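As promised in the previous annual report, we have extended the structural survey to additional targets. Below is the entry for PD-(D/E)XK nuclease family protein.
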Amino acid sequence: MAVHIRIVDSAAEPVGAEFLTIRRAVTARGRVELLTSSFEERETCRHALAQAGCGLGVEVTTPAGWIASLWELLGTGTHLVSALQRSLLIADILASWDPSDLEPLRDTPGTRFLLASMARDFLPYVLDGARMARLAPASQAEDLVVRLLRRYADRLAKLGLEEPSAAAVRLAHSFADELPACASCVIVRDMQKVPAYLMDLLASVGAAGECTVLLAPQQRDAALCIEEAFGVRGVEASVEESLAGEAAASPVLPALFFEVAGPHARERSYAQLISRAAEQACAAASSPQAVVAVVARRPAKAACQLAERLTACGVRAIAPADARFDESRTGAQFNALANFVARMRAAAAGEIPDSEWWPAPELSDWLACPLSGCDAWSARVFDKKIRGKRAMGVDAVLSELQSIQTRVTAQRKKLDSDNPWAQVPAVCADVVQYLMQERPVSAFKSMLLVVEALPAYAFGNTDGAVAREREASMLKMVIAMLMDETRAVDVPQSVATGVLSGLKVGISAKTSEVEANNDLSEPADASGSRPVVQFLTLAAAAAARPGAFDAMVFLDVDAETYSLAVKEDASTLLGERLAAAPVAIDPASYQRVLFDRAVRASSGAAILARVTHDRQAKDIYPAAIWTELRTRAGAAANVEQTDEGDIVLDLDPSGTVGLDTCQVQCLPPQQLSDEATPYVVLRQRSEDGELVARQLSASQIESYSSCPLCWFISSRVRPSSIDAGFGNIEKGNFVHDVMFRFHSELLEAGVDRVRPENVPAALSVLHEAFDEVRAEHARGKTTSSGALVPLDAGERAQIDEILPQLERVVRYEAGALMPFKPAYLEYSFNGLGVTYAGWPLGGRIDRVDVDAEGRAAIIDYKHRGDVNPFKLKDPTMPLKDGTIPAEDERWLPEHTQSLIYAQAMRRALGLEPAAALYFSTKGRAPAMRGAAAAALVGDKAEEGMIPGLRDGFPAAEHGGTMTFEQLLDRVEDAIAQRLDEMAHGVVCASEDPAGRCSFNHPSGFERRGA
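The corresponding structure token record, generated without further manual editing, is:
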């Protein structure tokens, strides 16, 4: 009757003193339970004991398997709850509580996981009345957790289920009365953490039978903690050392420490390193069939990243093809769609604004995913359409999805029967509708139909068959869980979807590059002529038999991958308060053992590799085991470093096979090549079949004249947002539409213009026009480039603010340009064949007012508050410093749009331009500014012409001599010079950049040779 803690020379399989301990226990007891930490280690120990002739008397199992077998033999007849059932019940309990009653907790995945871990580890102690009587709740949250766990226990009792921890505690109590022969001797090896309920069970075995805990020399410090844990339970434990010698405890040093300078060279460097290790292993074994183990935190992901490069190097890659639900395409798409549908459903009910779901990037991703049965082209068309229309509501989006599904289905029916896509159904709309109706099983069944019909290459060229089978297996598991497991524990399917993240699926499909091999304790089948690289976790590598591999490479041996942090959360605090904290071996000691065993699993070289810097060039610290082994190696350490200098190899996974590379020197910034210059000016075919320049609008001409670089970026590179906006452009479009509708309705009613006496009636017309245009824009209807569509209350309030501003505009019009009357509204030049500065001119002018003498005032609305920057003075008038702007041959005013249209109206309609004005429609003080003939401005002008505009053309009182007609001609001549430069590819920045230039000038104009 004893508990022994023995420090022995430990390996992946029982050797030396550890094997003697097991053999003696079998001889003395006849039957021994050997508990291991993982299934891989269990299989390795079973094989080793069978080879040694000691397999019949030893039952090698895991703690969970041991408790399950004991409960089946000695329990009350109830079944043990599985991890999935536990998660389902916890999720259902949280969902059934009112959110206000859950405060300060919330029903989130984190809360579900935390409660499930507490139920797994501490449920019997929470139900222990005597223990809880001594424990006053420390907080409202703790009291709520206890109540939730008791509710969970009640659900288990109703379902005839038992928590394994509670079963272990019950077994421990029964063993105190009588210890069955099947549990008289237990040996524990390689446990990183022993929960309290398992310690209780082990202590009860040790009190009446024999319990031995085996520790490696690196875990010597943990012996005292384990001894104290048994002592607290009233069982005395003894600590013994049975080491073969000091040399046996010394770790095997790696043959190489390999450092990569940064992440850009990571995949290339790792592939080259693995390939080199495989070549050396083949040479050492005198065989092309060497097996190299590659240890990574996530083997499947690492294999996917390196498989193509390794294939190019002539190396086969083998990896476990398993995945969790969240990591699969099924999980990623379902989680995204479920969240999106919930927001869309809430928006349709008016609970949240449409801005919470628009522009629906989740749907575009869904259409591009193979599981939808659609294609990337449909996704792009849909994405462009919905992003360009803020007015598409929930019903319109669903209708568009249905339209795409119908169209794709019709296209598939026209394909030949032998076409691999002919039998693939399109379910993009069906799945979304099922989720809207809260029918997740139907959604998953629809996805499964698509996956089973898709060709393998739809999931990728490298491992398409594996990926397809993985997705099919995941979908079948999810459907079975939602249909069977939920029914078994009486949990609604809608609740069950919240715990799908815990599902994990693995397959045994194989391809030429990436294969699945579940038995990682055995070397992979290397029957081919190429060396084989097997990806596996550190724990799996440590569980492999010594010499199982010809070489071993450890990837990403850094502090993040092999963290020494000890997790502390609410579960940890509850365990301490319940005096049920687990006994844990510190991570550093545990990692030393795992690394040492993994290195010994290789008969050849062991290599540690890591990346030293991240993408921001910040240091990535090495793992503690790296530092320890490097320090132990001392001056003899073999260190190799590689940089990120080989750009071509870093980018090309084929290793530049069949690739010609050369170095080119880029042109200086803001300079176009001779080949690119012809494309600066866009051209089209005329009626005669000749290539002619396309029409330029006045705004484009003004933009180029102000800053060629800004024009080139905005009009040719076009880095604009892909989403329809709600900004100044859309507000300006809205104001233009309202003013056009307002003046059109006035003219239809026989009112030629706004006058002081008809302002009240005009405001009434304005209100009607405003409401009509607002309704049209809300539906996405506008003749402008973009409608002003509000998606939430804040944006609707911004539209409300526009009406008072336009009311002030109408009042201003009543006292401005009195002899003039609106004659042309939104007048288009596109079909008139008008040329300006020798180039075809297009576009629309907002408004042209004409008086009885045929004089015209060109008016351009500007929805901005400050209109003073649009002032223009006679350039022949001397400035304060004595200079005359007109003497500069390249002189051009900053704003030329209205001047360009004034000249065009002069030619197209034969009018006499008298003013080119910009009309501010925003703010508290509307105003007109720009250029006008002297007769319309100043103190001598007729009353009520252009209030506030004092300088005209010519400004004779100040020495100016340029008339308004001369201004138009001078501007046209200067613009002709600018447009000639455009035709020659000049796209340099303005010498005097404006504030807006800061948005365009930094856009990629610092170049280097590449």
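The chain has a mean pLDDT of 88. The chain has five domains: 2-79+164-249, 82-162, 257-308+533-651, 324-505, 728-996. These points will be discussed at the next consortium meeting with the crystallography subgroup.
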